[in-house]
Amino acid sequence: MKPKFLPQFGRYAVAVTAAVVSFFPILWIAMIALKERTDAFAIPPVWFFNPVWEHFAKAWTTSGFSGAFLNSVLVCAIGNVLAFAIGIPAAYLLNQRRTPGRKAILVWLLISYMLPEFLFVIPVYVLYQAIGLYDTVIGLALVYQIFTLPFTIWLVRAFFADVPAALAEAARLEGATTAQIIWKIYVPIAAPGLAATAILNAIKMWNELAIALALTFDRAQTVTLAVAGFRGYASIDWGAMAAASIIVILPMAFFAILAQRHIVQGLSLGSVK
After folding, report:
1. Most Cβ neighbours (<10 Å): which of 36, 52, 140, 213?
2. pLDDT tens digits, residue range 155-212?
3. Structural contact between residues 267 and 194, judged by C-beta atoms closer than 8 angstroms
4. What span, in angstroms and rounded, lies between the C-alpha atoms of 269 and 8?
5. Cα angle 7-12-15, degrees, rounded to a multiple of 5
6. Domain spans of the chain?
7. In contact, 204 and 147? CB cutoff 8 Å
8. Record: fold of 62-269
9. Residue ranges of the alpha helices (H) in the chain?
């Protein structure tokens, strides 16, 4: 008879191994950011050292990194506002079976989300050059709706499906409008799901590179592009680049950790019972 603890031990072993494999590259980058240049690529590796913080100060004050950081924050904020302003009413309407073309719209949204974002860059580039939205934060937030809006509608629609229809019917009998039903009944009840959606949208926009590379140049540069700015013509400032990478990782990591309860609760809210 096999010991009962073995299956549980195996699960823990797999989880620990996955965590170590996932975390090790971040640990290695952090070590490069905290080491002197002579120790950063020493062979064999230097595991015990006195940390230095000059790379972080250099990363923040050079190559326009701090401005790019602010641009990314603004893009994530504006992108989420736009996605929810359109996605919440759309999700509510797509939950109503009487909505014309409901199934076709849902299929179109799914296809739109599956298409590679870079496919839209050339026509959007030409359009933005013509109307003055090239290299602007608002322009970048708008084009990110290509993937954030379908994702938001699909998730919010699942969360709204768990809201009891009787509440909406009772509110309608009391004279509430559709807008009041959405914002005063559905949104508060599905708040954990909306929080999870906002976090996932922010992570996606924060890490995006290809569209930002094509549609920005200097004024609306994001953090993912700013990290590459530490690469020179004939050399790379590895310490500053590693420090910049850690700075880019930390906000989303801390945000996800602090809001993990909302993420789990939100994603489970729309699950099939």
Report:
1. 140
2. 898 888 888 888 888 888 888 888 888 888 899 988 888 888 898 899 999 999 889 9
3. no
4. 27
5. 125
6. 1-52, 62-269
7. yes
8. MetI-like fold (1.10.3720)
9. 5-34, 37-40, 54-61, 65-94, 102-114, 121-131, 137-143, 145-160, 165-173, 178-181, 187-189, 191-207, 210-215, 223-228, 238-258, 260-269
